[in-house]
Amino acid sequence: MTQAEIKLCSLLLQEHFGEIVEKIGTYLIRTGTQPLRMIVNDTGLLLDQVKKALCVLIQHNLVTYQLQKRGFVEYEAQCKRILRILRYPRYIYTAKTLYSDTGELIVEELLLNGKMTMSAVVRKVADRLTETMEDGKTMDYADVSGTFVRLADTHFVQRCPSAPEIPESPEAPPPPAPTLVVNEKDMYVVPRLNLVGKGKRRRSCDEEENGEHKAKKQKRDGESSEPPPDDGIYWQVNIDRFHQHFRDQGIVSAVANRMDQTSSEIVRTMLRMSEVTTSSGAPYTQPLSSNEIFRSLPAGYNIVKQVLDQYLTLLADDPLEFVGKSGDSGGGMYTVSILFSFTLSRFHPLMGFSPLLRFGSRCARIFRLLLRKKHLEQKQVEDFAMIPAKEAKDMLYKMLSENFVSLQEIPKTPDHAPSRTFYLYTVNVPSSARMLLHRCYKSVANLMERRQYETRENKRLLEKAQRVEAILASMQATGAEDAQLQEIEEMITAPERQQLETLKRNVNKIDASENQVDETIFVLESFIESTIRRP
Questions:
Q1: Residue 132: its pLDDT value, please?
Q2: Which of 73, 300, 377, 526 has a C-alpha 20 to 30 A away from that of 370?
Q3: What CATH number is given for 80-163+184-192+231-237 in this structure?
Q4: Are the CB atoms for 476 and 485 separated by under 8 Å?
Q5: Which of 47, 57, 51, 53 is nearest to 20 (CA)?
Q6: Of all helices (H) and strands (E), which one includes residue 158?
Q7: Is the pLDDT at 343 greater than 80, yes or no?
Q8: What residues does the RNA polymerase III subunit RPC82-related helix-turn-helix domain cover (predicted)?
Q9: Angle at CA 93, nearest 5°, toward 256 and 158?
Q10: What does the pLDDT look like over 126-165, one tens digit per residue?
């Protein structure tokens, strides 16, 4: 765990959950697995505060607990899961692209709350969609429920592990912490719910004043409320499934750039056919026959079987190995190389582009040369790259000091005398990937701190703008005249309005930069995972 990762985790926890949760989370990241008593003593927080903070972290899958043999419970922070908070906007946008506004809000609610029952998600999303509709229109629970079922069928949401039902016995005391188990068969099975109703709009203040007293209303609701039919069945976002979708999109885009649109559509069909049957970390998809692929092609693509076989043969013979042939039954069995294709198409261009941005085009030329030739002496680098000796030496040492390239000594004699030793420059690709990943984490942390600084420096102006907007909204609701509204708008002067526009533009740039760096982080993490899993 590097200092850059710890700092980024701390900033993410503080921004989304506050100072107390951030203090507990950062402490667990730095110290590792700890029991409750040690957390309270070392952080100096109250026991109640620590318990509530741990509940929040466990609810969002950011901390796990384990019952030890001695009978006490230890808590451990999940740093990788905390870093996934940075990718939440991308998950939500993907759900919107695939399942429209309803899917977007379902995923957003699950990410905001960590775990929720299906009935609670459906009601909340229906209410939010009804708020955005015109007067007289409402969102039906059945429509939201249908989208939720489709998300579960495609594995974008999944059931949370639950505590098994153990018969209570007066002799045996309950365990200090429940052991959560998950049934693989039921992980994506949606409970049969008869959710009948429509989304509700929020009542205005006048309606609440004219209604019943709040205490009586709560009492009445408490008496009539019953546990929902899916009580105890909680759902969460399947982050690995989203990552699998991102990799699939990258592979389809790479095939389209290398070949043509028809080839990319064939690969897209193969990935879509195996998206549920293939695990998120599998290097290859399940084998698919040519006949199955032909039947699953979109209706708009009028490709005859012979042409499809030619495309599949072309893809299998390509040096990049996007598609591999694994058998001859059913017209030929084909698989898509997921990790290899994605890392080859996205990671290697990234590796060649990084020295270009940091050192210039000539260093990038040397770096790409070393990637292709593996090992070269300094004289060979000068000749192949066609760069003068003095400049090549300076560039190699510059990249060596920044850990972009490494130097390997091969002695002719046991005494390692410099005159009888070969000095070969090479690129340690996994090490360079980890170095770039570390710098990406550092860049995101710097961007977050810059955004916080911009917001803090303009805090008074932002609060004033919010007050003016609230006054305008209330006056528009009461039917105020245009002259009155204009007078309220003039409370913010022209220089202040310009300052607000500049702040908004800067914050938008920072947010866009965070998302772009996160895309790079995803490519680097995928490559590092593929090197670890490679036999």
A1: 82
A2: 526
A3: 1.10.10.10
A4: yes
A5: 53
A6: strand 157-159
A7: no
A8: 7-65
A9: 100
A10: 988 888 877 778 888 888 899 999 999 999 999 988 877 7
Of 103, 186, 111, nearest to 149 (Cα)? Answer: 103
Strand partners, 528: none
Of residues 373, 322, 316, the one with CA closest to residue 345: 322
Alpha-carbon span 442 to 460, nearest angstrom: 29
Question: Could you tell me which of 158, 321, 306 has the C-alpha nearest to residue 233?
Answer: 158
Q: Are 332 and 312 in contact (CB under 8 A)?
A: yes
Taking the C-alpha atoms of residue 380 and residue 374, their distance in angstroms, rounded to an integer, is 12
CA nearest to 354, candidates 338, 366, 342? 366
Give the C-alpha separation, 190 to 236, whole Å. Answer: 13
| Cβ 367 vs Cβ 400: under 8 Å | no
Question: Would you say 169 and 225 are in contact if contact means Cβ atoms under 8 Å apart?
Answer: no
Place of tokens 């090490």: 431
- Whether 3-77 and 80-163+184-192+231-237 share one fold: the answer is yes
Q: Is the pLDDT of residue 354 over 80?
A: no
| Phi-psi domain of 47 (left: phi exceeds 0; alpha: psi -120 through 50; beta: other) | alpha
Answer whether 412's CB lies under 8 Å from 420's CB.
Answer: yes
User: Can you tell me the distance from the alpha carbon of 289 to that of 211, in angstroms, rounded to the nearest whole number?
Assistant: 65
CA 314 to chain centre: 34
CB 20 within 8 A of CB 45: yes
Label residue 208 by pLDDT band (50, 70, 90): very low
The torsion angles phi and psi of 139, rounded to 5 degrees, stand at -100, 125
Rounded Cα–Cα distance for residues 84 and 106 (Å): 18
Centre a 10 Å sphere on the Cβ of residue 90 and count the other Cβ atoms it contains: 15
Residue whose token pair is 């006056």: 475
The backbone torsions φ and ψ at residue 416, rounded to the nearest 5 degrees and listed phi first, read: 55, 35
pLDDT of residue 448: 93
Please tell me the predicted confidence (pLDDT) of residue 453: 92
Return d(Cα 80, Cα 77) in angstroms, integer: 9
Residue 42 pLDDT > 50, yes or no? yes
Give domain limits for the chain: 3-77, 80-163+184-192+231-237, 244-336, 360-427, 433-474+484-531
Pick the CATH number of 360-427 from 1.10.10.10, 2.40.30.200, 3.90.550.10, 3.40.720.10: 1.10.10.10
For the entire predicted model, the pTM comes to 0.84
Q: Which helix (H) or strand (E) holds 288?
A: strand 288-289
Assign 417 to helix, strand or coil. coil
The predicted structure's pLDDT at residue 247: 85
